[in-house]
TrEMBL record:
Family as reported in the entry's similarity comment: Belongs to the MIP/aquaporin (TC 1.A.8) family.
Name of this chain's protein: Aquaporin
Source organism superkingdom: Bacteria
MF term (GO), any: water channel activity
Gene name linked to the record: aqpZ
Length: 224
């Protein structure tokens, strides 16, 4: 179990550092498409790099979906979730040290948000619906791509491309979380509104992941 937790910590740090780093350091040059690819490619790298160790969940919503699907114990979920939050915080901390090294830095770390002053200024309801639905889709793809009958060796690519597509659709809505750990790490350093709105980016993805796992467990999205 120790190696699994280390892998989850390392992998989640990579996700935050690459994805949020693309937004903070290169966002003006690469735009939403580049940021979307950074998040997706980070998942691909982690999936093939540490997937054999821990499954490369990198996301409490994914781990909770595994619990609901009957593929992981509650005790394992707790360990994974703690490791993922630690990893996201480490990734955000590294990004903070790098980004703050220039006078051009505005103080952002790729935090998620909604409402007035945040990107497309979508409402809390829109953000809640988006995060729930997209996490449901994301976890459903993960369960299917790693389940019985899936094409061997392609799970990481399918999962990474799905996360890329989700970002292409939703960066302007919430910055895209679908991952409580990814939201917690940067918010801890930025504080303020990012922390005040953090509840949504914990609750909605966890609910979406849990429902995806339950739907999978009863067989509606599972290959039998």
């Amino acid at each position: 179990m120790g190696n699994k937790l280390i892998a989850e910590t390392f992998g989640t740090a990579i996700l935050v550092l690459f994805g949020c780093g693309a937004a903070v350091i290169g966002g003006a040059e690469i735009g939403f498409t580049g940021i979307s690819l950074a998040f997706g490619l980070a998942i691909v790298a982690a999936a093939y790099g540490i997937g054999a160790i821990s499954g490369a969940h990198l996301n409490p919503a994914v781990s909770l979906g595994m619990v609901a699907a009957g593929r992981m114990s509650v005790a394992e979920f707790a360990g994974y979730a703690v490791a993922q939050v630690i990893g996201a915080t480490l990734g955000a901390g590294i990004l903070y040290l790098v980004a703050s090294g220039t006078a051009a830095w505005t103080g952002g770390l790729g935090t998620n948000g909604y409402g007035a002053g945040y990107l497309g200024e979508y409402s809390a309801t829109a953000a809640l619906v988006f995060e729930f639905v997209m996490t449901f889709i994301f976890v459903t793809v993960i369960l299917g791509a790693t389940g019985a009958g899936a094409s061997a060796g392609f799970a990481g690519l399918a999962i990474g491309l799905t996360l890329t597509a989700i970002h292409l659709v939703g960066i302007n809505v919430t910055g895209v979380s679908v991952n409580p750990a990814r939201s917690i790490g940067p918010a801890l350093f930025v504080g303020g509104t990012a922390l005040a709105q953090l509840w949504l980016f914990i609750a909605a993805p966890l609910a979406g992941g849990a429902v995806a796992g339950l739907v999978y467990k009863i067989g509606l999205t599972r290959a039998d």
